[in-house]
Each structure stands twice: as C-alpha cells, then as structure tokens.
Task: structure prediction
Amino acid sequence: MEEKDLKISIAHLYPKLLNLYGDMGNIITLKRRCEWRGIQVKIDRINSGNAIDEHDLYFIGGGQDKQQQDVADELFRNKDFLLQERDRGAVFLGICGGYQLFGHYYQLFDGNKLNGIGLMDAYTVAGKKRYIGNVTVKTDFLTPRDLVGFENHSGLTYLEGETQPIGKVVVGNGNNGSDGFEGARFKNVFGTYLHGSLLPKNPHFADYLIELALEKRYCKIIKLSKLDDDLEFMTHDSLVGKAY
Ligand code: GLN
Result:
C-alpha cells in the first residue's frame, strides 16, 4: 500500500478541559506528519457527554486538578471500552494530567482519590513540591534515544506490574523525582509528564506512534517515509541536556 492509500483515525479526548501548556500541539503534529505523507487523517474531538467510538489513536492532554476531576468521571464511564481498545492494540498518548488518569487513581492533596481507568498499572499521589522545568529523557526504543520537554506537576507517579517507564531522566524530575524514571508504557499505551508540546520537538516519537497506530489498523508493520526534519531536530538538539 502506498501512503496515500492509508487512513488513520485519532480521538482527541476532552480538549476543552485537558489542554495545558500547548498540548494541542501534539494533535497538530500527528495530523500534519500524516498529511505531509498523503495519509488521510480523521480527528474526532470527544467532549463531555460525547460517546467514544473506535479509533486507532487516542490523545489526552494535561490539566489542573479541577479539570481532571471533571474528566475523571467521563473517562471512568468509558473505562471498559477503552480497556478493550487497549487490548485491541490502539495507541494512547496521555500528557501529565491525562497520563495520571491512565493509572488506577490520582490522590489529590486533600486526600480525595480520582478514579483512573487502569490502562496501565500505575498510581499518582499529589506531593507538596511542584516540579517545573525542562526535561531530557533517555529512551531505549527511539532513534535518536532522547526525548525533550517541559514538566509542571505536583503529582508523583509510581509504576507497578508490567508497566515500564519511557526512559531514564537525564535532566529534570520525571515521574516522582526519586526513582530516576519518566513516563510509562504498557502495550501501546504511553504516558508522560512532558509538555512543550512534546511531539513537535520529538518528531521521531510522533512517527513511532503513527506507525504503531497504522500497524493496529492494517495488522501489519508499516514504515513511514522520511520527512525533512532538519528544523525539528535543530530545535530538539538545542534542548537535549539543557536545564535552562
Ligand atoms: N494537576 C496535575 C498535577 O499537578 C497535572 C498537572 C498537569 O497536567 N500539568 O500533577
């Protein structure tokens, strides 16, 4: 199949509530990197009260605790469907607040627990300290190996079971500022604290997610054609290892 014959469907979950620090840039990047290759992209914005139907890739951004509370109930009502989607190989990308709701719960500072949907074995507890700053992560599944972004969270996320981190923290704090890891992956579910937004400065990760989503849709490995990413990697490389 040529790329112009390919299609991909993306669900943008609760963009009116969880879209902090430019997380919308991730959807724009996924859309443009498909369109530049002639791949037909369908993006559905899923807002409160909307039913969620089958997609190849699901994206959810970050947000303040209040917005997370508004979204948690909505997500929880769709938990069984989203777990089935995970097990069918759909790709999920959650940023910060959205990432926290991928786990089993997010315990707020006042002790109240927000239900997560358990797409991955993880949990989050709000801490006293807010982690803010640039982050560099060293992965073992991307080429180049680095991911760069910006973190702003007080939640401390702990991974359990078969859930693996996305990588090791080189600069910044990551999941909880103590175990030296950032992000999480279980099957094709990815969560990370990296705002920025993440994907414009990490085109290799964007393409990795698109290839996984196409593999799920067409049940075969699909390698994307190369794009001219000189500008993207000039930005990326200028941030690797930089705290300020
Ligand atoms: N409210 C969550 C926290 O403070 C998530 C913040 C975010 O999405 N940037 O940890």
Q: What stands out?
A: The helical segments are 24-35, 65-77, 79-87, 97-100, 203-218, 230-239. The CA atoms of residues 96 and 193 lie 4 Å apart.
